[in-house]
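Dear support,

I submitted the protein below through the web form. The confirmation email said the job was done, but the results page showed an empty box. After a refresh the structure appeared. I'm attaching both so you can tell me whether what I see now is the final result or a partial one.
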Amino acid sequence: MEIPERAIEYMKEAINSIDVVLLRELCREFGIPETLRLEIWKLFLQPKKEIVEEKITSNYVSKWIVEDNEILIEETNKIASAIHPIGTQPFFNCIVDVAAVVSKIFQQESIEMRCGITKSIIYKFHPFYKHLYPTIITGLQNLIHILLLYHDPILSIHLDTNRIEPTEYTNAFAFNLCINMCDSIDIISKMWDEFITFPDTTLYIYCVVGYLIYLRKRILDAKDHQGVLNVINQPLKINDIKTIIAYSKAIRLSTASSFNRILLGIMNNSESYQKIFSKSLTSSLFLTPLVNDIINDKFNRQFPYLFIDCRRQESFDLGTIAAAINLDYSKRQDDRSYLENLFKNELSILTQSNSTFHVVLFGDDDTVDGNPDIGELSMIGLDFAKRGVKRVSIMQEGFLKYHKNALANMKGFQLMNHETETCPLCTTGKPLNFGLLEGTKKLKQSITQSTVEKTQQLTHGLIGFLYGNNTKKEDQQPTSQNQNTTNEEIKQTPPTQVEDKEQLTSKNEEVNENMKDENNINTEENIDDNSEEEDDNYLKELIEESSKYNSYLNIGGKQTIWKPVTIVLTTISILIVEIHNNKITLLDDISYETISKVVMKKADPERFTIVHSGGKCTIRIPEYYQKFIEEISKLQG
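What the results page shows now:
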């Protein structure tokens, strides 16, 4: 499409005045003209000329350079070596490919400037290259697999069934800014135009999933490992890439906020990722959103959530999340028809093609010791995925955290069937204890133990085990001796129904004695304290990494009453927090996508009214309010 002359004039004016907002919108609408690409890229990337040493540490030749062009081959390897020594870089060839594309697009520029542009692209979109630890590589691979399972479970299962590991499509696209999707330098430059001018630097991650979904029909038609690989490795034309980018933007908008938090944590190797999210990525196949993020998405982004309470019926009857549906994990284990009946009745809407629900599974909490534990919740999630149910996730910290927030009267947290006089969490501080049914519990553990262990090893052949692939039979099928042992265990009658009074009394006494001897460190109160401390640490770290302004919040409505607060501008939302004696209280979380307008009067420029889908709030920023305006405009995009 030819760009109108008037639009090009506006672009030039925006470049001269450094009007990033106007320039971004013009580029989104019309694309970037080749004559202005260098200037526009420089404005968004802010590259600096880099010193390029004469040494070459690799003889790799990028496919984007003609083999007889020895000078360009040598220069691209020098650029890559200047950015990262090959000895510390497992994806060094990806940097060479990026340098080769930059050198082909801007051949007239000096090698120092080309090195600066390449380095800016690498560090802007791949900040993990600064510290490319195994946990980052594994986390990124797992997270892209989780995103694909979230939006297209049937396609994800098909790839897993044909032994297409997440490493194959992640390594092919996520470490080189998706250049392998294209069949020419011109298409790559137009795709990078989109990435560079888009306000979120993680768009290309969503493009990996968008690319696979775009090839969905051809992938599902492929019947073996090599057939799928042949489809994935075929580069696409410009119209295909434009469609993929548009679809990827839609995927990003319909993905839970917690995904982007985890993704940014991986990108920057943040402390919160190392301590919290890296564990959830290796213990679950599914996205594990934070409780507060779920409620924020529900009210501010208008996500239609359906909560599935996977606790036992007895716990569900004593209080649960408003409008939740009970899926008793113990009945699912004991009765095969139980789940089928649920999907024919209460859950039938989820299997319809026009379903828009985001499904959230939860138990007491999401730990290995939870009830049900994270392994069992993942198995239930797979029951949904195999039926083609999209957007399934497992809520972090489960009902314990939700119940605590609801009792604190936090906005959006509502309970159902809840009476403080009978609720075990209100009366004892603990969920219902089913420990007396020890025989049944041991029987279930013997059946599910191997499944739970496999669930915690996503990158080591997990997927094939779960979906019944024909991979190494000696790893999947128990020996005849083990099979006989399992059969004997299943035939045993759980010792909970035919016990006389003396046996039951002695068992109760044993349980009481064991409870007295337990170390206080393992009590659930301390577990709750640890989870609260992790939340506080995560929030503190998020505040430290983001811009913050000492401000005041109007809590009196028309009768103005100013409350001292701190405004924090993260990459995806505005946090309004209260900090007192090193304790942080989150008052509101406003996503940029939900903001319709920000009102400021010239007579009182320090005062702002933020209007969003969840309502409006008025704040006052006595200092640096001009900087606040510039930053929120940039982040809102």
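Response: this is the final, complete result; the empty box was a page-load delay. The domain at 284-434 is CATH 3.40.250.10 (Oxidized Rhodanese; domain 1).
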